[in-house]
Fold:
Amino acid sequence: MERHKKTAKKTALLSILSNTGLAIIKGISGIIGHSEALIADAIESTADVFASFLVLLGLNYSTKPADDNHPYGHGKAEALTTFAVVGFLLISATIIAVESIRHLSDPQEKPEVFTLYVLAAIIVIKELSFQYVRKKGIETNSSSLKADAWHHRSDAISSVIAFVGISLTLLFGKGFEKADDWAALLASFFIIYNAYKIFRPALGEIMDEHIHHDIIEDIRKYSLEVPGVIDTEKCLVRKAGMVYIVDLHIEVQGSLSVFDGHEIAHQLKDHLMEKLPSIADVHIHVEPVRL
Structure:
């Protein structure tokens, strides 16, 4: 798990650096190239910088070991960080929408052709960033990294929308001067949609929602590999950051001594944590059954 923690933090740092560079490029290109859509994209990337920084802070805090005040660890801080990321997305979407509507009533200069080349490069970079960060999010089981990945995908698609808007303006000229502004406005709605997609899993994590069916199946399967375990009953799993905490009821032969039942429970806990490294702790309740 230590390797996963380092990987997650490194990935978040790379997001900060890439978002900073792209925000600067978009902002300068948008101002020089007279593109409201590109400037809107720069605003979103600026929000992404702060969001990625929050992800890094959240990862640093959520991976702290358990202490007296936090016996289950600090993992829930990661989901709270994801809420902050959603907040930044909503703020950037609101700014983009307000600015787009305001500029619809203003005279609009024709965007420069070079802005399309800038956007094309940004789309490729952002899609590659999405694939990389998402892969690392799945690898480390980090909800905040997965949220950060969708930030990159959101940026890529809003850049596609900006590309289409600028292309319409350049291709058709008169009568399509506002296509750039409409593209920015459309991008703001897409950002809000992505914010919801990021928010929903994080809410489930905070509420300990019963959604970890795959790992529950694995727990039941591996439990039966331990000698003395007849069957499993209740199995509850909650996610805390990049790890899981498990409550498991097992059935053992009723004639066993308390000592033997306790020993089986310890063997089972060690076995599960070996087979499933993402499990941080297992609380086992022993149920005696007559054979």
Observations:
- The mean pLDDT is 83.
- The domain at 213-289 is CATH 3.30.70.1350 (Alpha-Beta Plaits).
- The longest strand covers residues 243-253.
- The two ends are 40 Å apart (CA to CA).
